[in-house]
C-alpha cells in the first residue's frame, strides 16, 4: 500500500474580516479549505461571531485585532497567523473606510482618515504579505468600480482606491520569480453596511439600476471573485477585476 502525503492546510489572512465583504470572503475561503485569520479593527463581538460561524461549519479560524495602518500591529497579526497555522498563503485586504462629500466640502480630517486606512493600510498589509507569503500565494487588494464612474461626492474615496490600484499593479511586478499573484477586486454597488450607510431608498434604487443585471451586488458575489483569485486563478496577475454586474 502506497503511503499518501497529506498537504498542509493553506492559510489566509482577511483584513476587515468581521463583517460585510471581508466576512463573506473569510467564510468562503474556509469552505474552500483555508484556515482563516480574521483581522478586525474594533468590534470584538462581530469578529468572534464570524469565527464561531466558520468553526460551526467545520473550519479553522481565529480573530486578531489590529489597525491595518499600524505596522507593529500588522506585523503581530502576521506573527499570530504563522504561530497558529505554520505559514501564510493568501492575504485578502478588505479593510477600508469611506466618507462621501463634494470635493469643495470634504472634511480634511475625514480625508486623512481615509488616506491612513485605505492607502497607508494597503502599504502596511501588502508589505508584510510581500515579505512572508509562501510560494503559490496570492495578495488580493480591494479597489472600487467607482473609479471609472466619476460619481459626484466620491473624489476623496476614489482617490484612495486609485492608489490601491497603483500599489497592486506595481507589487505584482516586484514579486517576479516568487510565484505569488497580486490582484485587486473592484466591486460595484454592493449591499454592505459601508455602502448603504447614509443613502436613501431612491439613491439605492438608482444605483441598483445601473447594472444590466438590475440589482446591487451581494457580499457573496464578491467572495466568489476572491475565491477565484485565491485559488485557481494562477495566470491572473497584476489585474484589477471589476466585479460590478456590467456597469460601464
Summarize the structure.
This protein is of the alpha/beta class and 248 residues long. It is 46% helix and 13% strand. The protein has one domain (11-190, 220-240): 3-Layer(aba) Sandwich (Rossmann fold).
Please provide a written account of the structure.
Helices cover about 45% and strands about 15% of the residues. The chain is α/β, with parallel strands linked by helices and about 250 residues long. It has one domain: 3-Layer(aba) Sandwich (Rossmann fold), CATH 3.40.50. Helix 1 (about 20-30) packs across helix 9 (about 220-230) and helix 4 (about 110-130) packs parallel to helix 6. The radius of gyration is 18 Å and the shape is globular.
SS element count, helices: 9
**Tally of separate domains:** 1
Q: Termini separation (Å)?
A: 57 Å
Question: What overall geometry do the principal axes of the alpha carbons give?
Answer: globular
Largest sheet entry: 7 strands, parallel
Write the H/E string, N to C. Answer: EHEHEHEHEHHEHHHE
The CATH architecture term is 3-Layer(aba) Sandwich
| Helix/strand structural class | alpha/beta
Q: What proportion of the residues is helical, as a percent range?
A: 40-55%
Q: Look at the structure and give the CATH class.
A: Alpha Beta
> β content, as a range?
5-15%
Strand order of the largest sheet: 3-2-1-4-5-6-7
CATH topology: Rossmann fold
What is the residue-averaged pLDDT?
93
Amino acid at each position: 500500500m502506497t503511503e499518501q502525503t497529506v498537504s498542509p492546510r493553506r492559510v489566509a489572512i482577511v483584513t476587515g474580516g468581521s463583517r460585510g465583504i471581508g466576512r463573506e470572503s473569510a467564510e468562503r475561503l474556509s469552505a474552500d479549505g483555508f484556515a482563516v485569520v480574521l483581522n478586525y479593527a474594533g468590534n470584538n463581538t462581530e469578529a468572534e461571531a464570524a469565527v464561531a460561524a466558520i468553526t460551526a461549519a467545520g473550519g479553522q479560524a481565529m480573530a486578531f485585532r489590529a489597525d491595518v495602518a499600524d505596522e507593529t500591529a500588522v506585523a503581530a497579526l502576521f506573527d499570530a497567523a504563522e504561530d497558529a497555522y505554520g505559514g501564510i498563503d493568501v492575504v485578502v485586504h478588505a479593510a477600508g473606510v469611506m466618507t462621501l462629500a463634494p470635493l469643495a466640502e470634504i472634511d480634511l480630517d475625514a480625508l486623512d482618515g481615509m488616506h491612513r486606512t485605505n492607502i497607508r493600510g494597503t502599504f502596511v498589509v501588502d508589505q508584510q504579505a510581500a515579505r512572508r507569503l509562501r510560494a503559490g500565494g496570492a495578495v488580493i487588494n480591494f479597489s472600487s468600480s467607482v473609479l471609472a464612474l466619476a460619481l459626484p461626492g466620491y473624489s476623496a474615496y476614489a482617490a484612495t482606491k486609485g492608489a490601491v490600484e497603483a500599489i497592486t499593479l506595481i507589487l505584482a511586478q516586484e514579486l517576479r520569480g516568487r510565484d505569488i499573484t497580486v490582484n485587486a477586486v473592484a466591486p460595484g454597488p454592493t449591499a454592505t453596511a459601508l455602502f448603504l450607510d447614509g443613502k436613501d431608498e431612491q439613491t439605492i434604487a438608482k444605483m441598483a439600476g445601473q447594472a444590466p443585471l438590475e440589482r446591487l451586488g451581494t457580499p457573496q458575489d464578491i467572495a466568489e471573485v476572491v475565491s477565484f483569485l485565491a485559488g485557481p486563478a494562477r495566470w491572473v496577475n497584476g489585474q484589477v477585476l471589476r466585479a460590478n454586474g456590467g456597469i460601464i
